[in-house]
Amino acid sequence: MTDPRRYDALSRGLAEGVAATPGMLGLVLLGSASDDARFRRDEWSDHDFFAVVEPGRGTMLRSDLSWLPERDRIVLTAREGEIGFVALYDDGHVFEFAFAEAAELAGAQAREATVLVDDAAGTTATLIAEARERAAGSDRLDPANDVRLVLVKLLIGTGRVRRGEVLNGGAFIRQWAVVHLVRAVRGRCAGATSASRDTIDPVRRFEQDYPDWASRIAEAVAQEPERAARALFALLRELEPGWAEFPAAAADAVARRLGWS
User: Fold this and answer.
1) What's the number of domains the chain is made of?
2) CA–CA separation, 3 and 42 (whole Å)
3) Tens of pLDDT along 123-153?
């Protein structure tokens, strides 16, 4: 477990490193790293943040991570795409961050966020305000559409498993179908959703809001791929009674195609 005092010390170290590095102009802590959501921190909480650099400096600055705090305790760094990074400390603490120009984060979404470093123009504060607006604007559940997508993902995934593409087919079943099923449950049973839900990733904290659904979905995906797909299909059909928008004919067609009738 990362001691709360060390957690805060790492946050301060990040701010000091960004502020002292030429070409870097902003730092914003996200999610449970922010002041807004510090109450959610537990032994598995990492640091999520944006480190913002001056326009035109991204490519050059991304080759140097010496501004990270306690650099001698970092045992691993890796890149996720062009602007995403991770750093792992010797005690298991993780940094996950975007290291980018503001323009490169133009499509980012954010909810809880604390700006620790900014330039005189308020570039980082503006970036976060816009990211919050995007997150709020995208927070619209469409359960009828998500149910349709569950059916398609299960059909494609099961077909690929039967073809011998077990890893790829399993991803369709255990990952993509599950995400859409979770979204469908949240949209269909919206009354159980709490204010602390993650508006960007619907699977986060699903267990807190829908413990029974979460338990049964977890049991379903713990099986081998086709059994998992069939179990998820059965769970999906539990949403059907009394719901005129449920695509019953499509569900029947998927069941016939896969021999699940």
Assistant:
1) 2
2) 10
3) 999 999 999 888 777 667 899 999 999 999 9
Residues 130 and 55 in one domain: yes
Are residues 14 and 134 located together in one domain of the fold?
A: yes
Per-residue CA distances from 237 to 61, 143, 244 (Å): 51, 13, 13
Does pTM surpass 0.85?
no
Domain of 114? Answer: 4-138
Q: How far apart are CA 73 and CA 6, in angstroms?
A: 13
Q: Which of 125, 248, 157, 143 is nearest to 189 (CA)?
A: 143
Three-state SS string over 205-246 comes to CHHHHCHHHHHHHHHHHCCCHHHHHHHHHHHHHCCCCCCCCC
Q: Are residues 159 and 221 in the same domain?
A: yes
209, two tokens? 């809001």
What is the residue whose two structure tokens read 């699940």? Answer: 260
Mean predicted confidence (pLDDT) in 10-23: 96
Tokens of 34: 């922010």
Q: What confidence tens digit (pLDDT) does each residue in 33-64 have?
A: 999 888 888 888 999 999 999 999 999 999 99
Q: Which CATH number fits the domain that encloses residue 97?
A: 3.30.460.10
Same-domain check for residues 9 and 108: yes
Do 127 and 241 fall into the same domain? no
Q: Are residues 133 and 212 in the same domain?
A: no
Smallest Cα–Cα separation from 182: which of 200, 202, 163?
202
DSSP state letters, 129-195: HHHHHHHHHH----HHHHHHHHHHHHHHHHHHHHHT-HHHHHHIIIIIIHHHHHHHHHHHTGGG--T
Indicate if 33 and 129 belong to the same structural domain.
yes
Check: CB of residue 49 under 8 Å from CB of residue 29: yes
